[in-house]
From TrEMBL:
Name of the protein this chain belongs to: Haemolymph juvenile hormone binding protein
GO BP: circadian rhythm
Alphabetized Pfam families for the sequence: JHBP (PF06585)
Signal sequence bounds: 1-19
PANTHER family named in the record: CIRCADIAN CLOCK-CONTROLLED PROTEIN-LIKE PROTEIN, PROTEIN TAKEOUT-LIKE PROTEIN
Top-level division of the source organism's lineage: Eukaryota
Keywords attached to this entry: Biological rhythms, Signal
GO cellular component, one term: extracellular space
Keyword Signal: yes
InterPro entries named in the record: Haemolymph_juvenile_hormone-bd, To_sf
UniProt family annotation: Belongs to the TO family.
Amino acid sequence: MTERFLIFWFAVSALAVSGEIPPYIKVCEQSVQNLSACITDSIEFLRPKLVEGIPEVDVPSMEPLPLEDLVIDSISPGSRLATNITDMKVYGASKFEIQKLVATKSKNGKTFRFQVNIPQLRVEAHYQLDSRILFLDLKGEGPFFANITNYWFDCTMKGNKVERDGKNYLLFERMRLNVVIGDVSILLGNLFDGSPVLSKATNAVINDNAHLLFDEIKPALVGTLEKVFTDMSNKITLKFEYEELFP
């Protein structure tokens, strides 16, 4: 998600160079005294556009934010988690709160460090499950819902200046995310063929151990986010020369 913020900032720089500055763009010049504060202000100024997206620079909407499918197969003492989570959509990402942003520059590129809080995220998806969690054997498929509150993450993105066909571009290394989750609630629909009594009891047990379940899901989820958003950032930065992005 953090990378989406960077994408919008890179879009700002590119549009400023072309002279086509929409009213929702607040430009940060390279010579600004506090670049980090200026970028933060620019992101806040752009917040209304995050829901809509910016099609002219191929930046999609953040509401909802689609994620790649997750395939999980892990074994731990007394448990086995085998599930596919598909058609994932995340709601609430545009409500992010930037707690800290540090932008540093070097001779060969840029490094951005973010600390961000998202008060609440809602995840909707489809699951296929064949697992044993604690003493429960779970098999089935249906709608997956999760509510996540106090979602914190630190993100580091390092961009290197690279030369291609005699021109300079900014290419990001794979981003690194450190995620901390506050509270998690999970609902699996259609368990036990929709039996209300068994489904309610099973979901209660799952939510009593929601952090254990989410800890199994988190590595695959974080890995997906790191890859998707690094690719998205490079999709933008490699369209424009380095000197255009950072005049």
